[in-house]
Design brief:
alpha+beta; Nuclear Transport Factor 2, Chain: A; Serine Threonine Protein Phosphatase 5, Tetratricopeptide repeat; 16% strand
Length: 440
């Protein structure tokens, strides 16, 4: 079987369909490598051990701890950093090279990121990644502060160790190799690869940046799918792929991934803007996929996830996500607590969710009053105006006030003409409320 190998030349990703073992033979200079790939090798335990080795290498490097650093190498390693030093063979030579680098750059620190691990046998693996260095002083090191690397690791006496290192420093923009005039596309793909790889440890990221996705949505999907297969318990990876599906107008796939996200993220205590937006988008995805049972279950997960919050903005977002559709019996009292917390902040968004809670409880007069209060307060945006007018229309119709129903509905529709939605959930909430209002 032939494998596609990704090589990095002048920071440009190029693919060559060549047998993978030739790369290893080139790196090792050894024709006796066992290249049999078994389905029994490369389990979670080995992957975790290799990742931990990288953590130990980075920690030792940043502490300039030579003993700990050399403990990560096999007995007969060699290294080529892609710079002026060239190939360095043996532990003593590698140690001298590292010691010289520390003496010339006493404040150097590094950040190492793994992109991929591939197992060739029970005792041989190839790992790829990239480095970012800081605190450099020599001109030589400043020119190679960022770059890609490939390592061959050998398992010796039950421990994975670095056998071979190869590095390719990032080249200046003007040195980028042209690939059929599509160097910008190549750079965009590299940006996606880097961003996806950082999802594992970056607790602030819940979606891939749109400017990185661009025309590379298929590439992004493949990278996220691969990352999920390697990290199946990482909720933010599911959130990122779900948002990609939502932007591609693939609601059922988005809903499925967001539901997985909701189950995996239950124990998190992160209440950032990015986290709550991801949860709101997930609720919207269940509705757009027309899976109301999953929506109800998702809302219960969301309420449990944020039940301890003291943030009025978080409470408002949770309440809106749960109440823009008819809430289940278990969810309604929990949502009401979120509404009460949101009302501690004197802002129009809180008035809207208070009105929505009253509407779901059958208190139509109170719902109308809160919707009108919302529309009378400053600091509103057009999306809130749409939603409040639709709530007012529904509550007015429930009270038999057809004139106010028609007027409020007309205002909402007027706002919705040619509007551009920035947030996925805003679009779904507005369209869902409009559908509910028009069915009355």
């Amino acid at each position: 079987m032939r494998n596609v190998i990704t090589l990095y030349l002048n920071n440009t990703r190029m693919k060559f369909s060549i047998p993978f073992f030739l790369i290893v033979l080139f790196l090792t200079g050894c024709a006796s490598v066992d290249i049999t790939v078994s389905t029994q090798v490369g389990g979670d335990k080995d992957r975790a051990a290799i990742q931990q080795l990288l953590v130990e290498w980075e920690r030792a490097f940043n502490a300039h701890d030579m003993d700990a650093l050399m403990a990560t190498f096999a007995p007969k390693p060699d290294s080529n950093d892609g710079g002026t030093v060239g190939l360095v063979k043996g532990r003593e030579a590698i140690q001298r090279q590292l010691q010289t680098s520390f003496e010339e750059n006493p404040n150097v620190k590094t950040k190492q990121t793994s992109l991929d691990v591939r197992f060739l046998s029970p005792t041989l693996a190839v790992q790829t990644g990239y480095w970012n260095n800081d605190g450099l002083e020599t001109e030589r090191e400043k020119k190679r502060k960022d770059g890609m690397w490939t390592c061959v690791l050998e398992k010796i006496d039950g421990k994975w160790l670095y056998l071979i290192e190869r590095g390719w420093p990032k080249q200046p923009e003007e040195n980028l190799l042209k690939v059929d005039g599509k160097d910008s596309l190549v750079k965009a793909e590299l940006a996606i690869e880097k961003e996806v790889s950082q999802f594992i440890n970056n607790s602030k990221s819940y979606a891939v940046k749109k400017q990185n996705v661009g025309i590379n949505s298929n590439k992004t999907e493949l990278l996220l799918t691969r990352a999920i297969s390697l990290n199946p318990s990482n909720p933010r990876l599911f959130s990122a792929r779900a948002k990609l599906y939502a932007d591609q107008n693939r609601p059922k796939l988005a809903a499925r991934d967001y539901f997985s996200f909701s189950e995996l993220d239950l124990e998190s205590d992160v209440e950032s803007h990015e986290a709550t937006i991801a949860w709101m988008d997930g609720a919207a995805a269940q509705v757009l996929a027309e899976d109301l049972p999953s929506y109800e279950s998702y809302c219960l997960n969301m309420l449990r996830r944020f039940e301890g919050t003291e943030d009025t903005i978080v409470a408002e977002r949770v309440a809106k996500s749960v109440l823009f559709q008819k809430a289940g019996k278990e969810a309604l009292p929990m949502a009401k607590k979120m509404v009460d917390l949101a009302m501690k902040n004197d802002w129009p968004h809180a008035r809207f969710v208070k009105g929505l809670a009253n509407y779901r409880a059958g208190n139509f007069k109170a719902a109308s009053n809160y919707a009108e209060e919302c529309l009378s307060l400053p600091k509103r945006n057009v999306f809130l105006d749409i939603q409040a007018n639709l709530l007012l229309a529904m509550a007015s119709n429930a009270q038999g006030d057809s004139a106010k129903y028609k007027a409020s509905l007309s205002k909402a529709k007027g706002h919705m003409e040619n509007i551009k939605y920035y947030w996925f959930h805003n679009k779904v909430i507005c369209q869902s409320l409009l559908s509910q209002a028009e069915k009355q």
